[in-house]
Amino acid sequence: LSAAVLSAEQIGKLSPAEQLAYRAQEAQTVQGPYLGLAVVLFLLAIFVYLFRLPTLKESTEQADTGHHTLIDALRHPHVLFGVLGIFFYVGGEVAIGSFLVNYLSMPDIGNMSEQAAANWVAYYWLGAMIGRFIGSALLARLSPRKLLAIFAAINMALVLTTMSTKGAVAMYSVVSIGLFNSIMFPTIFSLGIERMGPLTGKASSLLIMAIVGGALVPYVQGLFADRIGVQHAFFLPLLCYAYIVFYGLYGSRIKSDTPVAATH
Q1: For the residues of 50-104, what is the DSSP string, one character each?
Q2: Burial (CB count within 10 angstroms: exposed 0-12, middle 13-18, buried 19+), residue 179
Q3: Helices 114-139 + 31-50 axis angle, to 10
Q4: Which residue numbers in the chain have pLDDT < 50?
Q5: SS3 state of residue 229
Q6: Are residues 13 and 80 in the same domain?
Q7: What does the pLDDT read at residue 7?
Q8: Alpha-carbon torsion, ordered 18, 21, 26, 27, to 10 deg
């Protein structure tokens, strides 16, 4: 059983004890990547704790004694659109990563065991890390808004490819999405707090809260996957990346030439 990926019909023919053993084996195949991710996050937390960040003052450009609320920050369109951008980006990224094992183990996609598919999940996240270094170099030369839109458009093309093809093409295209996810979070975040002055703290709080998309979007995609299939359910991340194209080209633009820090 450990070397085979069984269909629902085949699992139904097993005895209760064999089904329990098979499910336990399935769980063990994905433990390695997630344990590795937990270790990396733990080490990252220690690094952040030891690295002393400067205190963010209420006003970054001028003294301001006014009281600001989250609603004040949301009145600025580039902040509101940025909150939605973080929501959809994190949701799309996590949704794809969450469905990779099931998707790659499908007979007409990767036709591999869940243990082998779990290794490809690591490649997906590794691509995001490699792309971060490449993206940093590109951001030094190109407009962050344009680069964000370009990367999101490339991911739309990759999602469409993995939805409309089979075998190796579908497999490599979905894993490659991680490479172009790389710059999205920091770029959306930076554009969302641009020129917010005394409202920077409130805008930052809203953007951080928007990562709840990582819990909600995968859940909704799961509902669609149960009804239309795992492959077709990738239309949801496709819509997420379409929104990020909009944000890069239009939604992130600041509507006034007056610095936000000078207004209340």
Answers
A1: HS-PPP--S-SSS-------HHHHHTSHHHHHHHHHHHHHHHHHHHHHHHHHHHH
A2: buried
A3: 30
A4: 1-4, 58-65, 257-258, 262-264
A5: coil
A6: no
A7: 52
A8: 150
Number of domains within the chain = 2
**CA nearest to 91, candidates 188, 161, 5, 6:** 188
> Cα–Cα–Cα angle for 254, 259, 263, nearest 5°?
110
**φ, ψ dihedrals at 127, nearest 5°:** -60, -40
User: Given this model, what pLDDT does residue 63 score?
Assistant: 38
CB 121 within 8 A of CB 100: yes
Residue 62 maps to a domain = no
- Does 23 fall in a domain? yes
Question: Can you give the residue range of the structural domain that contains 27?
Answer: 1-52
Same domain, residue pair 205 and 251: yes
SS (H, E, C) 166-197: CHHHHHHHHHHHHHHHCCHHHHHHHHHCCCCH
Q: Say if residues 162 and 29 touch (Cβ distance below 8 Å).
A: no
Please enumerate in sequence order all residues whose Cβ is within 8 A of that of 164, keeping only pairs 6 or more positions apart, or say none: none
Reading the block at residue 220, the tokens are 């909704």
A 10 A CB-CB count for 81 gives 19
State how far the Cα of 106 lies from the Cα of 231, in Å rounded to an integer: 9
4 in helix, strand or coil? coil
- pLDDT at site 254: 87
